Fold this protein.
Amino acid sequence: MNPNVQSLKAFLGRADRVALVEVAATKGSTPRDAGAFMLVSASAIFGTIGGGQLEYMAIDKARQMLSPREGEMAAKRPEGVASEGTAKVPSAARVTPPGGFAATLPSRGRETRIEVDEVCATLDVPLGPEIGQCCGGRVEVLIRLVDRTIEERLIAKAEAEEAHLPHVYLFGGGHVGQALAASLALLPIHVVVVETRSEALQDMPETVETRLTPMPEAVVREAPAGSAFAILTHDHALDFLIVAEALKRDDTAYVGMIGSRTKKATFRSWFLKSAEGSEAEFNRLISPIGGSAVKDKRPPVIAALAAAEIMTALASHASAANAFEKAMAG
């Protein structure tokens, strides 16, 4: 299971009461697009709708809605037992009780509108100097108390997104491999670290999949279309085998190999003469990974540059695939 799904289930399981804060509509420049969401309990937050004053306003309104009416806590919990849905709520969050609340805040002709009933609130907010943000757009935020139906929908959506995450295969668990795995583990992708040495997989982040195999090049053949491959093993000959296998596929988003210009030239000669590769296939190889603009060979720096490069390639590939599908459908 993807760690994001696990974290979502854990958050929902811990809190007695939760509010869903969701970007319902946007206009102009905004921090997040429609569909972005966060969950708010009395003492914790899961996700983000972009930060800044907009998010603070939404959190405050969500916690006002979470504040129980008189007598509700006694009915929900035995006397003296704290509830996450009621504990640690700032006094400011209790000023406006849920139900029948509506207000407008002046904002130079583009007022902020807040409408609330007992289970739902709508914030229509201009992102300008009036609230301390300068994005320039406008965001409509929908806040709802989470019931069983919403909870099930959130989990189903997270699981569906997990099933469609792009795959990144990282071959090699050395110093750069460890650093790159740590960087990639933070991103919305499915990371698979492939190694021939068991000890090289011991300190990998918990959120990445690891595979121990004597034939890592075989993993390339099994990867789904649109995958990215970063090759940086401890053995140049093994690098060459894996890269050659990846370049033979015409559906990859990225094929990158760590190394120098000399290593790339040596690979090219071998690939064209001994591996029956073509010049067109070779030209798809990115080497060295991370580019050459930053002259820094420290593993964490290489990892940061390579992670950005891989994410850019995945986004570009996805955009091209979507454009092709639209063209075929139209």
